[in-house]
Amino acid sequence: MRVFITGGTGLIGSAVVAELLGNGHTVVALARSDASARAASAVGAEPIRGGLADLDVLRAGAAHADGVIHLAFANDFSSPEALANAVAEESAALATLGEALVGSDRPFVACSGTPAVPGRASTEADPILTDGPVGGRGRAVTGVLDLASRGVRSSAVRLPRTVHNEGTGGFAGVLTGIARQSGVSGYPGDGTQRWPAVHALDAAVLFRLALEQAEAGTSWHAVDDEGDRVRDIAAVIGRRLGLPVESVPVQTYGPLGVIFAADQPSSSTHTRQALGWEPKHPSLLEDLENIQP
């Protein structure tokens, strides 16, 4: 299958590209810089220059592919305005990719986040969040799933709050970065809130399985660790960096503060049973031991 992918040189995307190439697919990767184009070429993918805002490039990439995987996001959480702009850019990109696939019965795999459900671990049957700081992403992915009624084999892989590899990535990586800057390995509230996690290499397998097998309009959970306490995550970060571990104000995390403070465990039982997905790589707490002081 010839697969067009956005975000193919990031932490998750590079793992997905390797997984696709290793299983007989060819990959065309959107590359927004010369460096990204070189990285894509180096692993055997065909780069196509452009970013999420280049809608004509996206349209052409999808039109000439047998399937599409979307992973790119600006990841600018510096202010509410910057985050809103990133969400708007991604929403337009998803709409463009989807329209290019209408009536083709080709697969379109988008990514989103696992939802938070009060009092229990969320499942694949729970609706994605469509309000709050990143609610726009949820609305855009819902639009992708709705394409199932228009001849697109659309699906969504819901990623947990931390997708990690070699001690970096995701919200745990944000905690590490703030700890390095502030001199404190912090956590919001009492730190008992739980975050789900998955290794990037395991998540990559699920993206491939969704591309190959998922029925139209379905959602899947790329979750290995159902929920690690944020206080425990901060404790490993603090120990690795030689820093004190303590509670810090929610405002420390800017527009993500509300999300960071929420208890949000998640289950992947249905995903494992239906698609035969089984994570094999280190858990988050194990992987954080790779943080370098």
Automatic annotation (TrEMBL):
Listed Gene3D superfamilies: NAD(P)-binding Rossmann-like Domain
This protein's GO CC annotations: cytoplasm
GO MF annotation list: aldehyde dehydrogenase (NAD+) activity
Where is the segment annotated Disordered? 270-293
Give one Pfam hit by family name. Answer: Epimerase
InterPro entries linked? Epimerase_deHydtase, NAD(P)-bd_dom_sf, NAD(P)-dependent_oxidoreduct
Which residue range or ranges hold the NAD-dependent epimerase/dehydratase domain? 3-218
- UniProt signal peptide: none
Q: Which protein are we looking at?
A: Nucleoside-diphosphate-sugar epimerase
Organism per entry: Actinocrispum wychmicini
Q: What are the top taxonomic ranks of the organism?
A: Bacteria, Bacillati, Actinomycetota, Actinomycetes, Pseudonocardiales
